């Protein structure tokens, strides 16, 4: 990821954070406005210190991409340069398929890449975006491209939530029976001809949730407490 003439240290830090989120660690900086290192970058990186520590600085874009066989310029503007235009997804696929190093250029926050910067690239990378509002900040642009690249990496999958083992059917039946007795005593099943339908609906409701044994015990405790309070009254 090559940040061309970035203006704010905070934005460099946020870009580093976006990169490391998706497994990218090599950042190159071209003529950062406020010099480098920048004390404002660290806090904004939120722990992506590795990316900032290893970032390298160049005077020109040409120097920054000199060892790269494939150079992509991120821009949403139409320029007087005829080059292939791809989406981040297509660029990520091409980067994996093509031998040699690849560089992705991101322009300054205020103005984006200049025409001369784009001229150094072989391909223009454009994010499909609302034509009425095509304004992405630097970190947003980096994270979109990094995310598409990460799809082909073996990054950790989102953690699954351990819902616990489902309760045995016998436990569910005990809870349903307890509730049925309480509802019968409270004359809930009225009129009598609707009792079967009401019981069926309740059973469907209570078995749909996938209760765990702990949840069944908790609910039965609630029912017992309610029943005891009623008896005391």
TrEMBL record:
Location of the tRNA/rRNA methyltransferase SpoU type domain: 2-147
SUPFAM superfamilies: alpha/beta knot
Species lineage: Bacteria, Pseudomonadati, Pseudomonadota, Alphaproteobacteria, Sphingomonadales
Gene3D superfamilies per the UniProt record, alphabetical: 1.10.8.590, 3.40.1280.10
CDD domains according to UniProt: SpoU-like_TrmJ
InterPro entries to which the protein is assigned, alphabetical: Alpha/beta_knot_MTases (IPR029028), RNA_MeTrfase_TrmJ/LasT (IPR004384), SpoU_MeTrfase (IPR001537), tRNA_m1G_MTases_N (IPR029026)
GO molecular function: methyltransferase activity
Biological process terms in GO annotation: methylation
UniProt cross-references to Pfam families, sorted A to Z: SpoU_methylase
Protein family according to the UniProt entry: Belongs to the class IV-like SAM-binding methyltransferase superfamily. RNA methyltransferase TrmH family.
Organism superkingdom: Bacteria
Keyword annotations from UniProtKB, A to Z: Methyltransferase, S-adenosyl-L-methionine, Transferase
Keyword Methyltransferase carried by entry: yes
Descriptive protein name: rRNA methyltransferase
